[in-house]
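Why does residue order matter? Because the sequence determines the fold. Keep that principle in mind as you read this record.
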Amino acid sequence: MIEIASLSAEDLAPIHHLIPGADPKLMPHPETGRVVPVADARLDGNELKYLTECINSTWISSAGPFVGRFEQQFAAAVGCQFGVACANGTVALHLALATLGIGPGDEVIIPSFTMVATANAVSYTGGSPVLVDADAQTWNLDPALIEEKITDQTKAIVVVHTYGRPVEMDSILETARRHGLVVIEDAAEAHGATYHGQSIGSLGEIATFSFYANKIITTGEGGMLTTNDQEIARVARRLRDHAFSQERHFWHEYLGFNYRMTNLQAAVGLAQTERFETLVQVRRDNAARYHEALAAVPGLRLPGEAADTKNVFWMYGLLVEDEFGCSRDELRARLARQGIETRTFFVPIHLQPIYFARFRGQRYPVAERLCQRGLYLPSGSSLTPADIETVARAIAEVRHSN
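Structure:
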């Protein structure tokens, strides 16, 4: 049986104040009976038409034609020549690492402030994640702290474009070149973001995307590896598909995976990609409305956008400071009673029970502060201006009642 990692009371004592409380119970608004979800999918394009084509043709496995069409169109939308569709974003990242040959004894630099899947994908290879703290302004890994973490065992840097905010890539790419390291972009949340005019997903050797139901482009579950390197794409395709030999079908010369995407998922993804710019702009419009409504509320630190970058605001995140008058968790509870769903920011990797022993004694203060103070508001593609007004008004009411 699998062994469950747990933290002792002694382990928890110094970090207990950083760990989010249980999610508050979400109740319909007492007057309207409505709930504003944190995210929902928008499926008002050709999704049903293409799914019907799949059913009528009986091509529902990964061999169907929509997979190749989706790969081609999505890769082009993010400035790449090649796309390799996968079962989800986590396996896309694992596939990228495996394609590069990352394995036992190798170190991969990642941010501490990220979703646990980033660290897990490195661990799946047998490699070791090495953590870097976040930058207080961008919430992404701090480029100035990478150099001190590089050793003779370091093979790659995984940058995560957190919540759709582009990482400051120039200095990271320069550091990687000097040390002979590969840069992988974890762009799970950054569909359509740009950095100095270039698409996120086309800046490193490989990038990976997630198409989970709350993402800007969704297939329900799904992911994709993108690259401009033909050999990387070729190897990734082989690994994704059990490493089948091209000479004979049931012949396997190295260890592969079953990480394929179905034709059904790809049909939805293609329909979504046809509206790529529209779906990206919806998130940016949501963010602009939130910013206008919340900018004057004391005690909230709103997300910014660096010069010459485009933040796609996958989720509209903010920090609740002391001046607001109540804690982040209390704000969440009071919003939940008004039918408004929220999420806390990521719990940093070094505080996760499954990684706590590995990183025992290490502290990443910016990541910890983001964990303690951060939440994101309803941000889905179906959100209406009236929904945003409802959320903003409820937040202001909480502030004024303190």
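Residues 276-294 form the longest helix (19 residues).
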